[in-house]
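Quick illustration, no need to memorize.
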Amino acid sequence: MKKIFLYGHGGSGNHGCEAIVRSTVQIIRQITEIPIFLISSNLEEDENYGVNKLCSLIREKNTFSKWSLEFLSAYLNLKFRKEYIPMDKLEYEKAFNYVEEGDLAFAIGGDNYCYKDVERHIMMHEMMLERGAKTILWGCSIEPDILKNPIIEKDISKYQFITARESVSYRALKSVNKHTFFIHDPAFSLKMARSDVCDSIKKGMTVGINISPMIIENENIPGIVMKNYQKLIEYILKKSEMEIILIPHVVWKNGDDRIPIRKLYEKYENNNRVRMVEDSSCSELKGIISQCRFFIGSRTHATIAAYSTTVPTLVVGYSVKARGIAKDIFGNQKYIVEVQNIKEEEEICDAFKMLIINEKEIKKKLREYINKNEWTETVTKILY
């Protein structure tokens, strides 16, 4: 083994992606000093958040010559066979040509197999295998029904190792690839960083809230999600002395948490008990979330930041990763509100009341869960 590659990374403007990179490098560095390279679709974002200080960055897509035999072959495949993958590969060749036989390649996208561009991830995996790399699907979640697709099933079976971050995905992946291990999402191990915002929070007197555009896209009754959050905020302000901090965890142009958060904040901006965070690194965001007494989140890695610092957390989710992680921690889905099923305006608020009632029990469950980790042991198996 000469080098380690992390690939399938969309950029650190999604602080969940950033958290996976940072924590994975941190785990590997406890075992070896082998050079680590991150193949990224957005180098500028990664540099902006300082990821280049942890590992070397390689741009995922690059320009290519249209006068090469490779382009001619890809063009003919596209024109006469309607095969577009050979043409798509050309943009990735320069980055993936750094990979040599015996290198390790971690596919770190988490739930990349759940999205529409799954063919791109299958293509990148094939490119790694073609170069003789040992491939690992790292920290994965997948809807079990997706594995009914024979193309995806075949690709999953080719990984030398898979780590599933929750038991629903673990059982599904294990049925396809026997080299599947159940281990917490690496971001549970992410180190916190303090910031001015973190230092200004009233610890034990603050509720953190994260909202994703994706939960609004998945609602079945238009406007019901935002009405639920309004009812929640009004309840907290009326029935307690706690403050509220609105925390974005993804700031990508397509899927910016600040858009729904700002709409909500504008309704309460004259109330000095409600404030909004603009943006910070994943480590600083974890520091902010750790100071909250309670957290209500829709982004998986925002909730992981809360879980991993024993903050009682309510998940407003829409996918297997939300259901799976919560069920593994608590043994049930009591502290999840599935957005597709929201019909009334006070469902999130009612679930939050259960969080308050069971605060001590929840903190106990979280302590038990985060003490069970085997990252170092598992990565050692992968490396050696």
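Residues 224-239 form the longest helix (16 residues).
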